[in-house]
Each structure stands twice: as C-alpha cells, then as structure tokens.
Amino acid sequence: MSTKIKLASLIMMAGVVLVVAFARGRAESANDTFSFDAANLKDRTAWTQVNDKPYYISSRLNLLCQLPTANDYERERKTNPHVSTFITVYVNNIGLKAMFARNPQRFPEGSIIVKEKIHDYEAHKPVLYTIMRKRERGYNPEVGDWEFSVVGPNGTELQGRGKLENCQSCHISERDSDFVFRPYLNSN
C-alpha cells in the first residue's frame, strides 16, 4: 500500500472517529435529564439557603408617583419574572464556595442556584422557581455556560428549560460575576 493511500486511510479513520465522538457527545447532551423537586431544598446536606429572609426585588413601577395595579405588575413580570417579588435563594454544595466568595468567581460545572419567588411575604406561598445550572464548557458560552429552568409553583412542574432568551437577555449584563446577580447576599 502506498504512503498516500495509508495517509488517506488514517485521515478518513480519524474523521470517522471524530464524527462518532461528536455525535455521541451531542446525543448525551440531548438526552440530559434534569428534574427538580422544591421539597428537596429543605435538605441542608445538599442545599444552603443563601439569604436568611426573603429579598424584595422592586420594579420600575415601584418608583412611579401613582400606586401600581396588579395588572401593571403582571405586564412588568412578562419581561422580567423577578420584579415585584420576594426571593429566597438556594445553592447546592458544588456552587457554595463561588456563591459566597468575596470577589465574584466562575461557578464550577454542576453548580445549581435556585430562586424561590413569592409575591406575598406573609403567606410565603411560592409562585415560581427559577433555576440556573452550570453546564459543561461550550454549552452556552454567551452566558457562561448556564442553563436556565422555570418550575411552576407546585415545585416540580418544569415549564421551560435551556437557553431561555428571557433569562439570558437579563443575565448577560452580569458578565463580571459569572452572569449571577447577588444583591441578596447583602440583605442578611
């Protein structure tokens, strides 16, 4: 067999190996399952509550001279689900060190941050959970490889997951803190 044929065969075999490896990696990512159960947040061996008391996220409506209506807040929440809510934030053990670091740092792969949202501070009845999960490098480089999820008030119903544009468009502004807002750290 000539050297050119051997070289061509090696290149072709390497190409096949790369295609198979790439396809396998894609299949694993596509089959990645993620489930969430808010009841597990009580497990202090796996989760740390970041802020002692719920942190209020105001909206531009709170700055108006007139009293905003419930409809005003509902319209506002369509663009940002966090406004005019109280949040309690939880982080898993993998992300614990990065969450409480004095200077913002990159969260390690596998970090999970959960925001439990409530509208009524007294009733403390969750209306939504939003979740950030740090994925493998290259998953979503535009926003630090974070995957975003939305879970309904029952704590298990997955309403959306992935590269959610509504989440990304806001978190993109926090590039210097690995795309994580952390004003609630100062609220304790």
Key phrases:
single chain; 188 residues; alpha+beta; seven-stranded antiparallel β-sheet; 4 helices; 7 strands; globular; disordered N terminus
What is the overall number of helices?
Answer: 4
Mean pLDDT: 78
User: Could you tell me how far the N terminus lies from the C terminus, measured between alpha carbons in angstroms?
Assistant: 74 Å
Q: What structural category characterises the helix and strand content? A: alpha+beta
Itemize the secondary structure elements and their pairings.
Blueprint lengths: L2 H28 L16 E3 L5 E3 L12 H10 L5 E8 L3 H5 L11 E7 L7 E9 L11 E6 L6 E5 L2 H7 L17
Antiparallel strand pairs: 1-3, 2-3, 3-4, 4-5, 5-6, 6-7
Structural features, described:
The chain contains 4 helices and 7 strands. With 188 residues, it is α+β, with helices and mostly antiparallel strands. Strands 1, 2, 3, 4, 5, 6 and 7 form a 7-stranded antiparallel beta sheet that branches.
